[in-house]
């Protein structure tokens, strides 16, 4: 009696990582090269570029953009602080003038 090997399951193993996850940095999908062959080309998702979708389109802008936003926020805070101080001094001067008109002696 001859024993035959058990048949192996065929088809796709969904537990294995896909080509896009391995070769395209999980930011694109693999396409076979034109003309066949074993090579691949990554078709990158929106916002990614490079041979293996490893670069972001705006990667070079991230540091200058962050610094610019922080500078604007700092500037707005400084202007708000200065305006508050000026208004405080104006109110103090107005109170002093009102007191002088009415004959009160307020030491401020």
UniProtKB/TrEMBL annotation:
Residues 15-54 form the EGF-like domain. PROSITE patterns: EGF_1 (PS00022), EGF_2 (PS01186), EGF_3 (PS50026). InterPro entries: EGF. The keyword Translocase does not apply. It comes from the Eukaryota. SUPFAM superfamilies: EGF/Laminin. The chain crosses the membrane at residues 65-86. Keywords: Disulfide bond, EGF-like domain, Membrane, Transmembrane, Transmembrane helix. Disulfide bonds join 44-53. The keyword Nucleus does not apply. This is Zonadhesin-like. It comes from Gymnodraco acuticeps.
């Amino acid at each position: 009696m001859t024993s035959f090997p058990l048949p192996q399951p065929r088809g796709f193993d969904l537990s294995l990582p896909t080509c896009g996850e391995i070769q395209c940095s999980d930011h694109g999908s693999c396409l076979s090269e034109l003309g066949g062959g074993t090579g691949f080309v990554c078709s990158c998702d929106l916002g990614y570029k490079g041979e293996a979708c490893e670069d972001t389109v705006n990667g070079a802008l991230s540091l200058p953009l962050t610094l610019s936003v922080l500078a604007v926020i700092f500037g707005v805070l400084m202007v708000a602080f200065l305006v508050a101080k000026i208004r405080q001094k104006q109110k103090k001067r107005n109170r002093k003038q009102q007191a002088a008109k009415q004959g009160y002696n307020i030491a401020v």
